[in-house]
Amino acid sequence: MEWTREERYRPYQQYSALELLHLQAAADNSPEQLRYHIRPSSGLLNDPNGFSYFNHAWHVFYQSFPFGATHGLKSWMHMQSTDLVHWHSRGLALTPDNEYDSHGAYSGSAKQIGDRLFLMYTGNHRDQDWNRTPFQLGAWMNQNNQVTKLKQPLFRNPDYISEHFRDPQLLEYDGKYYALLGAQDAKTETGHLALWASDDLQDGWHDVGLTNFTPYPMGYMIECPNLVMIDDHAVLIFCPQGLEQKITHYDNIYPNTYIIGDEFDFENATLKGSSQVPVNLDEGFDVYATQAFNAPDGTAYAISWVGLPDINYPTDEQTWANCLSQVKELHIRNGQLYQQPVAAMTNLRDPKGTKVFSNRTSIIDDHAGQQCELNLTISADQTGVLHLAANEDLSASLQIQFDTNTGALTVDRSRVGATVAKKYGTTRSIKLPAHQDLKLQIFLDHSLAEIFVNDGEQVLTLRYFADQQHQKIAFAQPINATGSLYQLKNI
Amino acid sequence: MEWTREERYRPYQQYSALELLHLQAAADNSPEQLRYHIRPSSGLLNDPNGFSYFNHAWHVFYQSFPFGATHGLKSWMHMQSTDLVHWHSRGLALTPDNEYDSHGAYSGSAKQIGDRLFLMYTGNHRDQDWNRTPFQLGAWMNQNNQVTKLKQPLFRNPDYISEHFRDPQLLEYDGKYYALLGAQDAKTETGHLALWASDDLQDGWHDVGLTNFTPYPMGYMIECPNLVMIDDHAVLIFCPQGLEQKITHYDNIYPNTYIIGDEFDFENATLKGSSQVPVNLDEGFDVYATQAFNAPDGTAYAISWVGLPDINYPTDEQTWANCLSQVKELHIRNGQLYQQPVAAMTNLRDPKGTKVFSNRTSIIDDHAGQQCELNLTISADQTGVLHLAANEDLSASLQIQFDTNTGALTVDRSRVGATVAKKYGTTRSIKLPAHQDLKLQIFLDHSLAEIFVNDGEQVLTLRYFADQQHQKIAFAQPINATGSLYQLKNI
Question: Locate the Glycosyl hydrolase family 32 N-terminal domain: which residues (chains A, B) (predicted)?
């Protein structure tokens, strides 16, 4: 289905309730639908927004176009959880309904201030000639989850920043409020991180300056910046668009990267002790727009959009698209970022659906299904292929090719089903330590695979679109491996 | 808000998607909202429909008017579960969209036939003069939950039955299909159960006759009949409207009752060995339209509408209304019907939120919350009051007054918060065996209480509308009692 601009930006009140009910039922009943991840109630989901802790619960919102699998007029849909795993819909939270967000309530963040949650986001406004103005906007959410927008914008792009000025992350430091934003220099058309500050949140926002965090050019734009403290390191997580491959190699259309520093100097907008070179946050096919924040106890958590701008997915035809990743707990060990499932993920394991295996293993499970967790240790000095979501003779599967001799792992989604973004390749490869055991923790959720390598030292996240009857998990030939397979419950 | 007839019967495509999204968010965020029961995604919920097992899952649908807390144009909304406890929305399943169900896809049942689920329901049709014709309709649901309606009605009311002819329960016996329906004699305006039969389901439906199951008059109409086998007894569960109090005493506007028989003679439409006098299925304030069926293993399960026709509830002002009960497993012991929580209900217990108490107990928990299960044994020969959802000084609470000396229990909702259906009284009382311990299993879900007495020999189900900050559970004075309190998780 081709969407015209007019259709994509049609006000929500001009769509019918019957149409929406049918779209919701289509998403509910899709065979490829996620069952323990956040997914759109209908239509398209993109960036996670407002990931926060407030009023004894975890909150995350997602960018939503409820009326189809296209990037149309965006709103914020609200999800709430008490354990970072079981998420429950709290419905439409931010609607594009005024002059400043007329063409989309775009991405942003949330932070508890007093007994309310402050939502800071980018209002996308276009005039009659389709010229864009990005307004940085605020709204309060009370303890009943009711949202009231501020009447006036907090600030807009200064002259030297183009229309690409968005995704504010609200931070508090030393009694002041700061906003970190993705920004494009109007003259040079290069990507930057802008830092703004305010004493009282609502008024007097002023430009601190562009952030110093790397000597390298960051392409033509940076989206979705996050500054987060991880084990006493200041870490920037962000999405540079148009980043040169010689700076950081990446395979996806746009990468989602991070840079580790010692600390962040808010007054001078500088990441001190920066590692300078962006590193891929996820080595899979589909992670973008990751949002991270520090919980009240200081722990850093992240959640990602599993989907990419300008990429189509097979479920588009079913009128819905994309999902969020599971929440990942972030740590730094030996100067490297680790991402791990949160503790409560183990509560999804169905005690009746556990299978333990050891020694020379070939078939792990003929009917593992596609809603499971596989924990696996593959002994050193072997090569082989692990087939996931496979048919009986393993001719169709999601392949993990491993070599624990020289140390290499490749995920190959070329033979699993409908292809996705073939232009950007059908394999993703990482290096492993040579001659060492390989630990894999693999989550399958019908059309999503999350592969945590060696306790989260590396993560590969990807969508796959297999026949849902292809439920076998097996090695191509017997392999020295031990592990457990768990069936996982719906959330 | 007053609803005009025109507003109530406005086609779904004339409501806007924005309106529906706001209604869904309002239901999602209501402080009184149920968190582990089936509740409307928006608007009003009434009868459970199509309770069945199909395609490795449990299914139940509910009567829905999605656009407000009024009995408007009804559809079927679909819920699915693998354990009878964790239900997940599968969205709009039957829409009122043709000549035969133009004024509502009314209640009915579902049954697996071959590899599909057959939905049998009443289409509510009204002509321009608002004269009603009740059509009995069919639809097939496939393994992807897609519903296709039959083009022609199965049958309509014969001349001797008035417009009140609805709620077909589809049954299969000895290679034939049968439908049991609520029916009103056109001439005498009395309530009956009609039995119809067909050899091949789609054609040739014929009238077997009115069912013989009691010598007493059953008021002016019977709604929602179910024939179910419980421990080798044939049991009729039904809702007589206008039943004389001298036949069966009841307090609610309409009762939901049952009659136990030895067996059901389909050829002669007769409940053999009938206990004749209807007995209240639930002794609380709010159960109606219970739907029961036999699972493939023969076990009888029931689920009830918690709500009553012609009664307003405080959440009406919040644009949503009503819920379904938890699923109850049915048994017969000593000639009496027992209703018990299904086994998987224990999976809702949060292991971190358990509290055990014994001996002379006064305060059970100062902050029990309103999402919990209380299992309690009160020793014989005591009188007292148990306060649920209570404020600090117990002046506001849902009261359970008990007397294990003479044997009596009263639930009093007059002091818990906003009043409901005051016209029909604010207390419900039952008799207990004298000089015996009293076992109570009480489930609270924010605005719903389900009280199972003595292992389900009696059940009292009711809505209550307390301040959600009233979280205390305590006896008025110390009582000899033992038990456990569990916090329960959301579904």
Answer: 37-341
- Number of residues that make up chain A: 491
Euclidean distance between CA atoms B228 and B234, whole angstroms: 6
Catalytic residue among A28, A47, A101, A297: A47
**Residues of A with Cβ-Cβ distance to B13 under 8 angstroms:** 16-19
Residue B160 and residue B33 share a domain: yes
**In terms of domains, do A231 and A350 share one?**
no
Do residues A334 and A416 both lie within one domain? no
Alpha carbons B227 and A286: distance in angstroms, whole number: 52
Contacts of B82 (CB under 8 A, 6+ apart): A490, B56, B57, B58
SS3 content of chain A, % helix, strand, coil (to 5): 5, 50, 40
CB contacts of B82 in chain A (<8 Å) are: 490
Q: Is A314 helix (H, G, I), strand (E, B) or coil?
A: helix
Provide ipTM, 2 decimals. Answer: 0.95
For testing contact with chain B, the best of A21, A28, A35, A349 (most B CBs within 10 A): A21
Q: DSSP label at B212?
A: B
Say yes or no for a CB contact (<8 Å) between B92 and A66: no
pLDDT of B337: 98
Is the CB of B13 less than 8 angstroms away from the CB of A12? no
Supply the range of the domain harboring residue B460.
348-488
Chain A contact residues (CB < 8 Å to B): 11-22, 24-29, 31, 66-67, 78, 82, 86, 88-93, 95, 144-146, 489-490
Among candidates B11, B16, B29 on the partner chain, residue whose Cβ is nearest the Cβ of A90: B29
Question: Based on the domain organization, do A367 and A440 belong to the same domain?
Answer: yes
Q: Quote the number of domains for chain A.
A: 2
pLDDT at B351: 86
Same domain (yes/no): B466, B322: no
The CATH number assigned to the domain holding A142 equals 2.115.10.20
Which among B13, B29, B89 is the nearest to A16, CB-wise? B13
pLDDT at A1 over 80: no
- Among B12, B89, B145, beta carbon nearest to A18: B12
Residue pairs between chains A and B whose CB atoms are closer than 8 Å: 103
- Which residues have CB under 8 Å from A424's CB, separation 6+? A251, A252, A253, A285, A311
pLDDT tens-digit readout, A323-350: 999 999 999 999 999 999 999 999 999 9
Domain shared by B139 and B284, yes or no: yes
Contact B12 A17 (CB under 8 A): yes
Residue B234 has pLDDT above 90, yes or no: yes
The helix/strand count (H/E) of chain B reads as 2, 36
